[in-house]
Amino acid sequence: MGILAGGEALAGAKGSEGYSGVSAAGSGAITLFRSVGADEAADIATTGIFNNPVGINVKNFATSAEDAATWGDWLNVGESTVVTTMVPSAVLNGVQAWSRLDGIGQAFAFDAKQLANLNRAMDGIRVVP
Q: Residues 6 or more apart from 129 whose CB is under 8 A from it?
């Protein structure tokens, strides 16, 4: 699967739960974004999925490319690539959600089990141009 270069960023409509891309009924799909450093980008290119390295308990995803880029500028100074995937909104059941994580924007934190569910349900991983 790997990272697909030149994928287009997909925008979602604001849903009743207050998170971009989640439908009012909680069904449908949501587009998630993540800023990755060089090591994580290489891992995605090799495995085609999102992985948590040993010692990392959660993986955060933003609901906009802009917010993911802001986190990337903060965490991976000069080394960030924003990637995107779309998943059924049911994948968010039980996932920790923030309306404004780190004062930046909406985000979801997936633990290892939830990340495995995301990996099974996602439509691939694309680089946001």
A: 6, 7, 8, 9
Averaged pLDDT for residues 2-31: 43
Q: Which CATH number fits domain 3-127: 3.20.170, 2.30.29, 3.90.350, 4.10.950?
A: 3.20.170
pLDDT score for 74: 77
Rounded Cα distance between 18 and 120, Å, is 25
Q: What is the 3-state secondary structure (H, E, C) of 66-98?
A: HHHHHHHHHHCCCCCEEEEEEEEHHHHCCCEEE
82 with 65: CB under 8 angstroms? yes
Of 6-20, 23-37, 64-78, which gets the smallest average pLDDT? 6-20
pTM: 0.77
What lies within 8 Å, CB to CB, of 96 at 6+ separation is: 58, 108, 109
Give CA–CA dist 44/38, Å, rounded.
10
